[in-house]
Amino acid sequence: MKLLKLLLPACLISALPGFIIPDILTIQNPDGSDKTVKIGLLIPDNNSLAARHGAELAIRKANEKGGFNGKPFQLVVRSMEGPWGTGSREAVNLIFEENVRALMGSPDGRNAHLVEQVTTKARIVFLSAWASDPTLAQAFVPWYFSCVPTDLQQADALIEEIYNKRQLTKIAAVSDNDYDSKMALENYLKKIKLSGKADPVQLFYDNQAQDFNGLIDQIKSADVRGIILFGKPSASIRLINQLRERKMNQSVFGSLSLLDENEISGQDMKYYENVILISPGNFSGSKGLAFREEFHKTYGKLPGAVAAYSFDGINLLIEAIRNAGLDRENIQKALTKIQYEGVTGLIQFDDKGKRMGTPGLIEIKNGVPVMVER
């Protein structure tokens, strides 16, 4: 305990941006003497309820099945809201004060990088359940995993649908000024170049914008046949509504970020009518239907993409713990071999911790997502 008190302040300081966390031995109770098996969850802010609810539901169902050898799982949630570096400090708190066995997070790409640095030095699994930045896996860190398709994988699915299946050649790629959106656009452009397709028209807007007429004028003058959106749901819906008010009839496509239910409700899906989006999974299967029913019964609303990835992510960690025991290194090894059929589909990881496979697509029809045939 005295050693922990000495190490913790140093870890907290070194976890801040600009500092390097020293290599230290992971502090844990290998004999499992804790009364519960703790799993940490980092959320962007206290209003980000979707990830929390998805994780809570997974924990509850696991405990109904006996937990881990009769010991209950416990979700320990921390918000990353605050000054830059808060996420690092909260990750350190979860690892060294709460003694979690693994960490899951639903932060944006920049904050996910900070958490990845902390967990790498502490030698504990970090599972990303929302950030799609592919550079998170490029450091080849064995402690990092992601159950979300990367921007590059999403780009593959969109390019196949737009250019090969629908044979649209003149496209406008529209992005807001958010870090993740610009990163997604950048990776889409990389894939376009590799595929030999024509470069899209690139347009940008302020995420707080209310009037998109200037942007729509640019789209109209470019005479494009399709529009692909990289941005947050609220602004994307405003843009789509104004496109329709202007009688613009281009096909509209969108990245996974447009489905963040922390900004939109299930009723808001009607505003995406006829829009084609990256699919978060097939909720019409038996697992998906059971998840939707249980989530709605518990929280009074239907789950979206964030809740689904969070639910699957916690279940992945629970299965790894059940297979490997409580040692953090063994949990990491178990995840490298895992094959888990979740509500977002089959999840298995490549040698860099990325989820394998190309995501599917959905089209919104009468306010309901319908799977697009490949």
* Low-confidence parts: 1-26
Strand order of the largest sheet: 7-6-8-9-10-13-14
* Biggest sheet descriptor: 7 strands, mixed
Beta-strand share of residues: 15-25%
The CATH homologous superfamily of the largest domain is called Response regulator
CATH class of the largest domain, named Alpha Beta
- SSE order: HEHEHEHEEHEHEHEHEEHHHEEEE
User: For this entry, what is the oligomeric state of its chains?
Assistant: single chain
How much is the average pLDDT? Answer: 90
- Put simply, the count of helices is 11
Outline type? globular
What CATH calls the topology of the largest domain is Rossmann fold
C-alpha-based Rg, rounded: 21 Å
- What is the level-2 CATH architecture name of the largest domain? 3-Layer(aba) Sandwich
Helical residues, percent: 40-55%
Query: How many extended strands?
Result: 14
Structural class: alpha/beta
Number of domains: 2
Q: Separation of termini?
A: 56 Å
